[in-house]
Fold each of these.
Amino acid sequence: MKLLINKLNLVYPPITNQEGAWLWNVPEVRDFVKGSKLYMIGHREELKFINEQFISEGRGIIQFQLATATHKSPIIQISLYHCLPDIEDEISIELGEKLFRIKDSQGNVLQWYTPDILLYRYWKNQLSIRIIDDTEFNYRDFTRYELYYVGISKNNDSFSRLFDESHHARLKILTNEYPKSSGRLTDELLIFMFEIDKLNINIFDRIEDIDEQINYHTEDEIAIIADAEKAFIKLLETKYNEVKYKNYPNGDDGLYSEGLDRYCFYIGEDITFYTTKGDFIGASDVHDHADMIFVEGEVAKVVKETIDS
């Protein structure tokens, strides 16, 4: 029996459409995300830092809250001692509703955070924060997005596909959708760039299967991302994908002809996508049991492993 498990990982934190236009001009970012060929476009109320301030205590503390029109976090603190434990130079802090930036005495940027970068680093356990008064921080209130579009770039990378040329679906969304709050749609539209981490599992039912299957691996990366695109479009019925792949998993350029007995896709990040078909919940911790798309033969379905948020 040949099984394939596919985990979708973000190559970069979620970025707004506006941030994408800015970051496209940063060569380091373009180089960093070039491994992504699968991307998604989602929509959430604009997320901001509010009540941000610098506290001169120890090496310094940044204090703030995260807020959309409908959700507000408790008061959060970040210690610069934990952020920059090896920096003894004098630093400067820039605080704004869309960006925190920490610089050294020469003006070099040491660290910077948008609200979404901060959340990403938090759920990845890359950032230590303190919650004032030990109030519960339901950070997943801020990581739930209406999923509009799923796409791939077979010949280039996701970022180039979206911003190096006119992307029909992205422009159509910007033209037709309304903001969820009082801000600009370009600040509410989120770009997600994924890579796929695959795991082949071969189970031998008979001794004679060993020679045939022991060295089997699914090598065609393009086939995997093409199949992932079709799976999410078909089962979540994304609004702006014009082709719905109603015959999936049957197809010419996916995994249908790979001879797999079963395979699945899940999102290994603490984000939730929703469409008219319901929520699809990801999880960065394997113990949190992410939802998955499960394919066996001619049947593809969403398997719910968690309680809908």
Amino acid sequence: MKTYRQMIPGEHTAGSVIPQPKEAQNGEGVFHLQNSCAILFGQELSEEAEFLSRRLADRFGLKLPIREISGHSPGRGNIVMERTKSLEDCGYESYILQVDIDGIQLEAPQPAGIFYGIQTLLQLIQAGDGQIFLPVLEITDWPMLKLRGVHIDLKAQMPTFQYLKSILRRLAEYKINTVLLEYEDKFPYQSHPKIVSPLALSREQIKELNELARLLHIEIIPLLQSLGHVEYILSHSEYAHLREVPNDFSQYCPLNPESQRLFKELAAEIIELHPDIQFFHIGGDEADSLGQCPRCQAKAREIDKGGLYVEYINEICRFILNQGKRPVLWHDMLARNP
């Protein structure tokens, strides 16, 4: 285990990295970044090398050449990124970052680990008096959690598309690897255009967002509410017949077959524009009006509210599974109605 000492806040050392690395040792001296340096990359790391090059150009005006590592020694004074098997036991997102006065070496078992090592490297860079430099140190790091996510809800406030992309970039800087994206009416539904907000993303923008997330090693999990929190739909008179309670816009009636049909049509469109997702979040939380319409009251007397909820949600889950995705839901209704 390498030593780790607490650093003064604001110092660009191992102690200032967010999140703090698992193992770190600070050395003496600095490595100076300058345009004579090159970014050298190994197998399947060209995108990560290009990412680092762009960030160094945007932030510091550096224009470092990018070259694939050949069979020769990479030489001194460069940034070298390579894959290694030495950290495989720590997971595919682990990395080793070594900075000395002669250059930078970044190693990881997979491209994701290289990407997170780059985020650490960028946090360590200092600029002043016409110089750009990093402290000499060695960091070995891996995440405590496999899934590190943020929920972005587009319901109440819709950011501009450029700002939404900047949110993803900022999250990636701190090694967030999952975004739960709740569209509500900000998705360009073609089968039900009535519920689409004028501020909705376009299909082209969603494709661009997917590509950005891939480059940032962020997994997007779309969220489409399946029972409650559907005011953006049921507030329209065309869908009023789906309400559990006539004067409540928030919840579908689970025994109205059109409720599931509508959900499935909307979900199919979202999946079409997110073909590579593993998970699909179906919401399912805070269905406080459950069991209040006459049909649901009668059904709840037979199988109680918990049974009413589970029957409905199971059908939703079967649909998502049939699309080749894994359903995810909030747990509160199951906890309240065991």
Amino acid sequence: MMMVVVMMMMVVMMMMMMMMMMMMMVVVMMMMMVVVMMMMMVVVMMMMMMMMVVVMVMMMMMMMMMMMMMMMVVVVVMMMVVVVMMMMMVVVMMVVMVVVMMMVMMM
């Protein structure tokens, strides 16, 4: 009888140990899941940050391109103005030359 009781106690202890092990395993699995979820969140956040950075860089590039285009337009306008000024100067010089020639002829 005593032997049977001891066997029963052993079996119960084994069952308890198994249950404890199972619970520990479940807890560890939960912890692992949480850690994996955290890692996934971090990766997603990193991806979002990278996307934001790429978008920011694209915006900066677009702004730079726009600025360059504006600068080109300004430079072209300046060139046009300079050319027009030079043409005016040439016309004025020609008129002056003609006037001087006329004066010389008159003399």
